[in-house]
Amino acid sequence: MKSILQWIRAVVCAGIVCSFWGIAIAAPVATGQGLVEGTSEDGLTVYRGIPFAAPPVGELRWKAPQPPAKWEGVLHADKFGDMCIQTGPPGANNATSAGPRKGVSEDCLYLNVWTPAKSERDRLPVMVWIYGGGFGAGATSTPLYSGEQLANKGVVVVSVAYRVNVFGFLAHPELSAENPQGMFRRASGNYGLLDQIAGLQWVQRNIAAFGGNPKRVTIFGESAGGMAVSMLTASPLAKGLFQGAISESGGSLGPTRTPSEPGENVPALEDAERGGVQLGKKLNADTIAKLRALDVDTISANARGIQGVGWPVLDGWVIAGDQYELYAAKKYNNTPILVGINSDEGASFNRNLAPEKSAAELQRRFGPFADRLLKAYGGDSTANVKQAVRDIMREATFGWHTWVWALLQTQTGGAKAYVYYFDQRPPYPENSRFSDVLRVPHGAEMPYVFKHLDQEQLAWTPADRAISEAMATYWTNFAKTGDPNGNGLPQWPAFTGTNQQRMVFKNMPHAAAYDNQDQLKLMDEYFAWRRTAEGKKFAAAK
Hints:
- By secondary structure, this protein is α/β, with parallel strands linked by helices.
- It has one domain: 3-Layer(aba) Sandwich (Rossmann fold).
- It contains 17 helices and 16 strands.
- It has helices at 4-12, 148-151, 165-168, 173-178, 191-206, 224-233, 269-282, 288-293, 296-303, 323-328, 355-366, 370-376, 382-411, 446-449, 462-481, 517-530, 533-540; strands at residues 17-20, 23-26, 29-30, 35-37, 39-41, 44-51, 74-76, 110-115, 124-130, 156-160, 212-222, 244-248, 337-342, 417-422, 501-506, 508-513.
- An eleven-stranded mixed β-sheet has the order 5-6-8-10-9-11-12-13-14-15-16, sandwiched between helices. Strands 3-4-7 form a three-stranded mixed β-sheet, with no helix packed on it.
- A hairpin with a 4-residue loop joins strand 3 and strand 4 (35-37).
């Protein structure tokens, strides 16, 4: 028998939000698995913790996500699902004397929805957030990723959880054998990316019930999330699941390399499989069944430091090939892109090295290109080495990737590309952990994009708030039309091979030509060399 409240809802509720004696109540929404009820929050309806796949536990550990079970009655989607098992010190994920770590679980494949729609007939654009964290950590419950401010600009925001570290990215010959993709192809390792694809498939099937338009979906992410966006734009498994892509400090267009380096992170399947075998030997688990029987903390602790484990894999299936070569051959999901970097990304990779050690690291990483790069970035004198190396790492890790991504897309007749450069340094205090960072560090743009400046107690200026408002508007404009322009904002020109401009976010948004074209072209020479026989031999020797 229905409760009185359920009966009232059934009678008076229509669409997504209904009213009961003047009080907003979130009406149940029908999904493919059952009814879901959210909460009404300041003009939005918010759904937290909707399962989009079965718990990847037991026999489903290291398998592609499976459909979630259907449920009876109404699912109260009012709290975030547990975050996926995270990279951390021993004991971080498993039971301890104080009990299990709260809010962390293998049962973590849930998504969240913020919708301003009043009816499923609204058909609003959809933005699907993919979090960063080096593919080893991250969660949709992070307050910074709360989607209400973007949703208030007329889009439906969805955030999707995915498995990370060894539980999201483990290749192994036995796992590959479980997953035949044709007579001669086997694949394993990219379970976290498959989770993201499953989340996008859920959006296609269900988002219309939340007032969203499944034919107007934009994926966006930062750092590892931005790299994942890059990978999805070239994955045949993601074809048709989105119509726009935003990558903040992402891109994954470098060649394979083992051991990996920032910007050359993706291992070949055979190398990643060797890492999986090494993990099994380390744990005296010579079969996947034995590995699946071990507790999460034991696996997490022993996976650290093993090459090829915990990062997406060039498996020939989810990641069909070298993304640079796929784009050059026009084998990608052709949607508009909005991509960019922060001005001092490289500080994350060279914080405490003395100049002589920085130069030595450069030689180890770039070989015959090291001295040329150092000179090109102004590192001729000892005093300039530190920042020069940081800027080289900025380019190798993110800058070259976003530049060449946009360039390839325009050269191959793809959809429009929009590029940005974020140089609005937050007002960090003098004793900040970023006090030694000259410009804007990795990740600093996110409070601006999500309009969550006030989550950090800094002395925000009117210019900071104006930049935040502009970025949130550009991002949502792009989600609505594939073009960030409109709403009286400064014009953001599309990037082309002959007009290589980007939007600079500093004090006020303004378009400008690249000021580091020569350096980027030199970095392009390096990556081209890395794909030659000599360059491959150099990388293998390391």
